[in-house]
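Q: Please design a sequence for this.
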């Protein structure tokens, strides 16, 4: 192009375009790094700088485009039709003038870009700002529509189309160079296909007047987690108008009738109103649901000009349909008294990321417009579900676990427990490994049921009545009955508060305690040959605990609870319903609730576990008796309470004598250890001398100094017997403790 003039940003001339990106590695296999504009021109004979001017001097310049000859470029107001608010007298050709744009940089091209308002979001917004018309060249298949001459019918995804365009530019002498240019490009999140921007006409609901009313309604709702309200309000504050249409066939047929002749449009409010206005097609529609193709047969007359009008071919956005559910499914129009009995709904839940601008938003919008009140009282927005490695599940990655597969391999109750136990506000890493862990937990429940069923079948105990406070119940019985009633209290709180995660964890703890404490310590009561009151109390207590637990957990483990009800609970229950789900939910029996007993037994189990931990640390098995165990219990009230359980503790840990110690310092020796990483940086060559001085300190003196936030002064003598005084800070040492010689110590 000898003699041609080119305009480009001075900064861009020698820049290696996208150099930083290529330094990270090739974007696309086989695509080389990009040349600078100077290198490109050098291969074509070189260039000479004629003039340098500020970019603002170019604003308003007009230019000729390479495809100004295409018919669509001359369409007034844009193509294929004027967009809403477009300058009707302008066309594509008349819009060729230089405008400013802050997003243009010098590191990717020439510093000058051509915008196409019909082919990109940012371009479209910039075009609206500068009143440049939009030209939409593609149909829904990605092919050029009529109006683009020899391009019409060609598909943009076809490489041959690109080659023809380049050849045309080359033939007309306007092509400088063609190169493979890697860049970020949108892809379908489902199938990874490349996406193409296509400008289409859609229908919107203007939200400016509604947003503040919706925000007021949103504030009346309980949001779980609480930050959900903040995100919803942020969305409502910054949202644009609501696009309510989709270019699909199946879906909610919108009763919008625009007149192509005069531009007037109407929204028909009901089937009856449509029947009154219909001038054609009613007989084809009558008897069918208001969906395509039948609804499309109906035509009405324009109320302004009398022209025959058809419904828009678009269908409604699915969230528009989902938002009306609190009204449409409960007969809002036909049975208002039924609707009033249900509205507002108590609780909804959905995955939070995204739904604050989809389903939650649509529900709020519909309810605000129709009733100006909240459609639900509580919403729980849960986090995402990913695979066991924390990756998103995708078919293309091969890590998707389908429901049927999971149900077959791990069981639906196992799946339900995984979801229940997970904090719903944090991402769940779901997989068969997690299922195996739950199965092991559930094995405790089945073992308890098996234990009870086995011995109850042999002894046939009287289970016709529940335990009562005056039955001479033992300490363990009273404790277990208090624990199971406590579980009922917490279960009611969990279910009524829509947060069952604490209940799942409490239930697992309860099962462990029943198995490892109550049953293990009561085993001899079930084994003895005489059917005395104590044995009967053990059976009735364990039966009550299992039956109550089963009813409490039934909403979470419906199938497991059903089997336990049929095999364990119902046979001993008078007039037992066929299903556990027909039982009334348990009520706590306050006569059995004993806070002190539960706290004491919990502390006893804790002390036993600590003592057993000390045995395990010394590799001394429980069956080997020991002479003495000393337990540090500083609190005097707690110490007196624990003394009542001395026999239980000595039996559990197999020692001959138990001694409670008021001061834990009697059980350990304390040593002051310098933190070498800290003092090494501070004292340098004198570190070893300081280390020895710190180690020689009295631990009790150091501890008191730390508690009183006093500085310790050390006198250190170096190799030349020179004495220096240092102030030692609390972060330069630590006080460690270890069991005294001849003793094994285990601490909380």
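A: Design:
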């Amino acid at each position: 192009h000898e003699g041609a003039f080119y305009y480009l940003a001075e900064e861009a001339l020698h820049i290696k375009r996208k150099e930083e990106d290529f330094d990270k590695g090739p974007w696309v296999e086989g695509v080389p790094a990009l040349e600078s504009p100077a290198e490109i021109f050098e291969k074509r004979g070189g260039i000479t700088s004629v003039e340098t001017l500020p970019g603002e001097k170019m604003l308003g310049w007009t230019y000729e485009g390479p495809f100004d000859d295409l018919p669509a470029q001359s369409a007034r107001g844009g193509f294929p039709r004027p967009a809403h608010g477009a300058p009707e007298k302008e066309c594509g050709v008349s819009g060729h003038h230089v405008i400013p744009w802050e997003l243009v940089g010098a590191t990717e091209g020439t510093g000058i870009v051509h915008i196409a308002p019909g082919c990109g979001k940012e371009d479209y917004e910039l075009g609206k700002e500068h009143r440049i018309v939009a030209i939409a060249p593609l149909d829904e298949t990605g092919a050029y529509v009529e109006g683009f001459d020899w391009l019409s019918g060609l598909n943009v995804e076809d490489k041959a189309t690109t080659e023809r365009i380049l050849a045309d530019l080359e033939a007309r002498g306007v092509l400088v160079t063609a190169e493979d240019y890697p860049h970020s490009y949108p892809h379908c999140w489902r199938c990874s296909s490349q996406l193409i921007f296509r400008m289409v006409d859609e229908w919107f609901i203007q939200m400016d007047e509604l947003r503040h009313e919706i925000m007021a309604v949103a504030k009346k709702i309980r949001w779980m987690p609480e930050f959900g309200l903040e995100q919803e309000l942020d969305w409502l504050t910054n949202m644009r108008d609501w696009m309510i249409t989709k270019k699909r066939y199946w879906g909610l047929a919108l009763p919008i009738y625009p007149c192509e002749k005069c531009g007037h449009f109407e929204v028909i409010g009901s089937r009856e109103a449509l029947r009154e206005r219909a001038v054609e097609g009613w007989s084809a529609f009558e008897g069918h649901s208001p969906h395509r193709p039948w609804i499309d047969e109906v035509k009405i007359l324009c109320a302004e000009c009398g022209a025959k009008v058809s419904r828009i071919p678009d269908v409604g956005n699915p969230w528009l349909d989902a938002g009306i559910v609190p009204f449409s499914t409960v007969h809002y129009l036909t049975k208002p008294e039924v609707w009033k009995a249900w509205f507002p709904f108590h609780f909804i839940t959905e995955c939070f990321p995204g739904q604050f601008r989809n389903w939650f938003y649509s529900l709020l919008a519909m309810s605000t417009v129709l009733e100006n009140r909240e459609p639900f009282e509580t919403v729980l927005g849960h986090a995402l579900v990913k695979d066991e490695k924390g990756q998103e599940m995708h078919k293309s990655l091969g890590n998707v676990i389908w429901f049927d597969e999971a149900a077959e391999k791990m069981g639906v109750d196992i799946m339900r427990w995984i979801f229940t136990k997970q904090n719903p506000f944090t991402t769940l890493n779901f997989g068969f490994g997690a299922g195996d862990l739950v199965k092991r937990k559930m094995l405790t429940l089945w073992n308890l049921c098996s234990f009870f069923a086995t011995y109850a079948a042999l002894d046939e105990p009287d289970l016709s009545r529940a335990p009562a406070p005056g039955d001479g119940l033992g300490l363990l019985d009273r404790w277990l009955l208090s624990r199971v009633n406590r579980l009922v209290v917490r279960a009611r709180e969990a279910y009524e508060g829509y947060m069952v995660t604490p209940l799942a964890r409490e239930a697992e703890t309860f099962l462990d305690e029943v198995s490892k404490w109550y049953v293990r310590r009561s085993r001899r009561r079930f084994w003895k040959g005489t059917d005395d009151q104590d044995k009967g109390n053990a059976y009735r207590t364990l039966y009550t605990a299992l039956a109550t637990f089963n009813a409490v957990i039934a909403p979470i483990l419906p199938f497991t609870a059903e089997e336990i009800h049929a095999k364990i609970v119902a046979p001993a229950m008078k007039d037992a319903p066929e299903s556990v789900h027909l039982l009334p939910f348990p009520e706590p029996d306050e006569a059995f609730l004993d806070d002190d007993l539960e706290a004491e037994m919990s502390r006893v189990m804790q002390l036993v576990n600590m003592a057993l931990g000390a045995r395990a640390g010394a590799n001394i098995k429980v069956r080997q008796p020991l002479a003495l165990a000393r337990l540090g219990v500083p609190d005097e009230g707690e110490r007196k309470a624990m003394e009542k359980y001395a026999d239980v503790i000595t039996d559990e840990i197999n020692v001959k004598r138990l001694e409670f110690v008021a001061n834990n310092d009697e059980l350990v020796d304390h040593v002051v250890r310098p933190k070498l990483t800290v003092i090494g940086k501070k004292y340098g060559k004198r570190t070893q001398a300081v280390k020895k001085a710190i180690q020689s300190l009295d631990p009790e003196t150091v501890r008191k100094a730390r508690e009183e936030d006093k500085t310790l002064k050390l006198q250190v003598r170096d190799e030349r017997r020179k004495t220096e005084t240092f102030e030692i800070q609390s972060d330069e040492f630590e006080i460690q403790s270890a069991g005294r010689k001849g003793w094994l110590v285990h601490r909380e």
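Q: Thanks. Anything notable?
A: The longest helix spans residues 432-459. The chain has 26 helices and 20 strands.
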